[in-house]
């Protein structure tokens, strides 16, 4: 009879609440390993996508920043060194009085395998003028007006399609590849302009026409005393970015129209200076052709909530076991946890082909059905299996809503956790720890 009592006590110690909680906690920590492996796969797929993007940009043209036209004039000053006068050269940089840019930006979607990238072709026309150069105060001993150049900074010359037509006071000038002066830009085109001391009092008007391809963004530097930029495009997901916002942009399903107006008072560099005294790339503005489908980022964000979904689901199974006296084996907890981890892998794989939203729906329904069916097979209770189905549906719906939020995701997540904790605390009140008295036969 004493032997029977000892056997009953031995059966009860690993069925206690404390032991179950410890084992489930250890199981959750163990499931962090496959969950981390899934995150690693997502990051690897992201890296592959980035490599594909880099290859496309190399052939098409990357993010474009347009700067110019800017007039550059070589100047010289003399210094006495070792009782000898030495001649030193500095470039005078002159910004235009007026700069007006009109352009159309047409998106083009390119595929490389399963990866999709948004590129664009733009048709640009630039007009403006330099005013009366003889009125400038220049701190130099000599000014070589005859050796002046105009440059147009283009961040990626591979994007130039066809000819670049440049007119200077209605006379066509031949562009040269590369930058003669690298004080302000490292990439672009240069043009020798016909300046002389006799025509410095004239107004020098210019107009430029060329086609430029690129990817992601098209940006501008406001180098004019008055800079105006007007763009239109067939892309309906623009993201206006940079130091200045457009004035009353028009957005619709057919695309967008946007215009900017910037004056010299809005920036931190003057109309002319010598050498490298100022930088002009801190006031860029323009547009990103934003691609709203970023399924890898959303998949990775969802996986960060994986431990929460796993913990809540296993807690529900624990409550069912304790309240309804339905015994669940540790191996069964493990299988349920692995099914929940599998969701994030299935989501990532499907989103590469059918988009994130549809992939989320298919993956969630698959895992919910799998876990619900398995839970019914374990506990043989349709009502409890139904509540597991409802619980998982609410969890995955809540996670989907969180992934759609940006500014309020942290707040919504905390509210959801507070509600979940309250529900768990209420459910825990139904758990009664009973002591079994041993009868001596």
UniProtKB/TrEMBL annotation:
Q: Name one Pfam family in it.
A: CreD
Superkingdom of this protein's organism: Bacteria
Species source reads: Carboxylicivirga marina
The UniProt transmembrane annotation reads: 21-38, 305-323, 330-350, 356-377, 384-402, 408-425
Name it: Cell envelope integrity protein CreD
Keywords, in A-Z order? Membrane, Transmembrane, Transmembrane helix
Return the InterPro entries for the record.
Uncharacterised_IM_CreD
